[in-house]
Amino acid sequence: MKKKIPEILIILLLIIVSLCGILSMDFSNSCSYINQYGDEVKLFGSGIYKDDSYFKAPIFIGTDLCILFFVVPLFVISLIKDLRNSIENTQLRLVSIEAISLYYAVSLCIGVKYNRIFILYVILFSLLFFTLIKRMRNLSRNNYSFEMKKSDAVFLIFSGISLCVAWWPDIIPTILKGTSLKLIENYTTEPTYVLDLGIISPLCFISLVLMKKKDSLGLVLYAILLQSIIVVAVMMITQSAVQFASGAQIPLPALISKSVIFIILGLFAAVLDRRRSNSSRIPGMLMQSAEQQFPVE
Question: Has this prediction a pTM greater than 0.70?
Answer without folding.
Answer: yes
